[in-house]
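Recall that a protein's primary structure is simply its ordered list of amino acids. Everything else, from secondary elements to tertiary packing, is in principle encoded there. The following example makes that idea concrete.
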Amino acid sequence: MNKDFLKPALIFAVAAVLTGLLAWLLPSYSNDLFPIRKLPWFSALSKPSAPDSSRVQVKVPRQAQIALNPFLDKLKAMPVRPGELPLAPVKKDSTTKVAPQQLRIAYFSDSIIEGDLITAPLRYELQKRYGGHGVGMVPITSIVAGFRQSIRHDFSKNWESISFMTPDRYDISLGITGYTFIPRPYYLDSRPLEASLADSIFLADSLKTAAPKVEESPEEAYRHYVEEDPFVEYRAVDIAGGADSFRRIRLFFSHASDSSFVRISHDSGEFKKLLLKPGQELQNMDISPSQPSKRLRLEFAAEDSLRLYGVSFDDAQGIYVDNFPIRGYSGMYFQRIHKAYLTAFNQALDYDLIVLQYGGNITDPENEDYRNYKLAMIHTIAHLKSALPDVPILIASMHDRAIKTGTQFHTSPDIPLLVKAQSEIAQETDCAFWNVYEAMGGYDSMLGFVNQNPPLAGSDYTHFTRRGAEKIASLFLDFLREEMCASIDIGK
């Protein structure tokens, strides 16, 4: 071998080894001018095994649950229907204030509550004990209207629907349902935006960073013009979680002009035309029938720039649980419901508790770090608290979800890490926390739900069946019972 080559090569090899050894021994140091990173030897040859997430412990201090006490206090003071028992034993207190006549819960989530799953059995159990007549707020249109059993819901196609998943419409505030609806003389065939891309846009905006570009295409939407005015029709359903009739009915809208109107028909009777109060601020109009009705039809002018948000079906007394699902939504960026509108909705509907149950559209088996998610959710909760300062917020964690590993299904390795991040969000924002994952049974509990006969969850090992949703609602009631008893034990 050529000695002139061997000597420089040997010197280079020794220098490389010494440099690498020095980089391995030196501690890392971060600065703006000359940061030093520690060299992980052999990291390219073998990836270190991920930590066993099944051993992750989620502990929520008792102090953190105090955020739920204003709701629990009202629930304990609610009058119980004759022949029924309260949710939990209540100590009689001579200093108790006048009993509230109504409680209302806004239950926000993704596709796991579509069709009134979880919320319908929860509503039924609470109304059975404390009264209430109606399903609460219902949007103008819904992609799962045919799946929901607690109310019959039909509508024309010519509505423009804007939601958390709609890009490029951030100037338009959404309603409390997570949607805004605009009457149109046409309907669109559109290609939906991928959930992952939509959430990355919202996350980037909430963190004030650059958002990914959405390529526009002439094939994104096709307009089909129709001659009829847009309509929506609701029919009462006498089943658990539903109602046999409509009593108090309120229509929520904004941006009405001097000529904006609604045509109303109860029980297929003659239409009555009512002018809507003009103005850009949120309005609600009482369109209750003179006596309980079973059917409501509303018609609007196709060329109107009116913005509609939904219809509330309730009564002056009892408990109401509003079902607010957004398919594909992660729970981030509630800022799209503008603060003034959130406040105005609450002034009309008077919420006593907000439940945020998300995670299904953020979970990723490869993810071991949910810090960005935490930051975005902290921004979201700060927005909610600024608009609704007196309304307690309960963060319900991600439920168990299984993925196929080899030939078997097991809990996705990131689920315990996501649940832990959600518990930390609750603690850092003074929200209450319900560990749904733990309530189900923890690691691999989804397998038991799927393998039940009849099944409590679907073959995707993610979504619950109706029976499974009833089970989750029952677990939620157990959680409320435990919290009510705990608040009594500590002297509340």
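The chain has ten helices and 20 strands. The radius of gyration is 27 Å.
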